[in-house]
Amino acid sequence: MKLEEIKESNYNFKTKSTPLVELKGLTKKNIESISRIKKEPGWMRELRLKAFEVFKSKSMPDWGIADLSDLNFDKFNYYLKPEDQPSVKWNDVPKEIKKTFEKLGIPQAERSVLGGVISQYESESIYNNLRKELLKKGVIFTDMDTALKEYPEIIKSHFMKCVPINDSKFSALHASVWSGGAFVYIPENVTVELPLQSYFRMNTEREGQFEHTIIIADKGSKVHYLEGCSAPKYTLASLHSAVVEIYVKENASVRYTTVQNWSKNVYNLNTKRAIVEKNGFVEWVGGSIGSKVSMLYPSSVLVGENAKASHLAITLASKNTLKEGGAKVIHNAKNTSSKIVSKSISIGGEAAYRGLVRINKGAKNSFSSVKCDGLVIGKNSKADTFPHIEVFEKDSSISHEAKIGRISDEELFYLQTRGLSVKEATSLAVLGFMDEVMKEIPLEYALELNKLVELEVQGL
Asked: What is the pTM of this model?
C-alpha cells in the first residue's frame, strides 16, 4: 500500500451518522440548551453564561502569525450529540461510530498497551473503559460529563481554576460551550503502569469541538496520559478549542503526550496548563501535524520547591498552513527547573516558536533551558522564533538557544550516494532533526508521526 493510501484510509474518511441534537450558532439560547440537555447543576449553567459575557467583551487575539479575523463564530455547530450516553461495552457503541474508531485502531490499542480509553465523537464521549485492576486501586478515568454528575464537588473546585475563564477570548468561548473530554484522578502513591488514552474525532463540516480535560495526580502518584485527535477533510472551516488542566501534587509525576492530526480546514486553538507542587514533575510531549491554523503553548506553573517541567514539541507546517508552537513556564518557587525543546518544520507553510519563561522574585536557584530549532524545506516556506524571557530573581539562570536553517546540500548529497532519492534523503534528514523529541513519544505514535512527515515531504 502506498503511503498516501495509508494516510487516506487511516484518517480521511467520513462516517455517515445523524446527530440526535444539533445546535448551530453562538447564542445564549444554545448555551442554555447545552446545559439543559446535559442536566447540569445550576453553578455550571451560571459559569457558562458568565464566560459568554467575557467572550463577548474580549477582542480577537492579533499578536500571532495567523489572522483570525475571518473566523465567523455564528457558522459553527457548537453541540452535536451522537447518542444518548457513553457505552462501557464496545459492542454497545452504534455500528457506524464503532467503525470509525476501529479504523483508527482504538480497540486494538486498548487491548494491548492501554490501561483505559475514552473515545469522543463529535461533542460527546461514546465509549469509556478502565482496567479492573486500576478501578480497585481507586483510579478514576471517565468522561467529564459523567464526572460532573458523580464527583460534582471535585469538578467544581478544579474546573476553569487552572485556566480561568478570563484567560483569553478562547478560554471564555470554551467555558461557554464545552462538552466532553476526560477526568483523571490518581490516588495518593498509586502508579499507573499503562498509559490512559483519550481519542477525539471530529466528523462533521463546520463543527466546533470543545472537550475539557482535568488530570489530578495526588501526592506521590504517577500517570502517563495519551491524547490523539483527527478529522476528515472538508472545504469549510471547523474549530477545535479545548482546555486541559493538570494538577500535579507533591512528589507526583504526570506525562501528557498528544499527537494531533487535524485536517487542513481546522483552526486548532487550545489552552493547556499545569500547576506543579513541591517535588512534582510534569512532562509535555506533543506533535502537531495538519490543521489550517494551530496555536499551541502548553504552560507549567511551578509553585512548589524543586518542581520541574519538561516541554518537548514538534510542529510541522505544510503548504497553506500556519503553525505556532511553544511553551510557557512560570517559576514561582525555589530550586525549580524547566526544559523546553521545540522543533518546528516548515514545508511550504509558516512555522513559529513562541514561548515565555518567567522566573519570579524569590524563586532562588531556579534554572531554565530553552532550545528552539526551525527547519525550512522547499520554496514559500518560513520559520520564526519569538522567545520571551523575564527574570526577576538574580540568583537564577536561563540558557537559550535558537537556530533556523535548511538541510545542507552536502547532507543530501551524502544520503543520495547511499542510494536514496532526493525525497527519501530529505525525509531521513527531517526525521533526524526531530529525533530529540521523537524518542520520547510512544512507539505507536512515533510511527504515525514518521508516516505523516514522510507524506508531507513527498508532497514537495
From this structure: 0.88
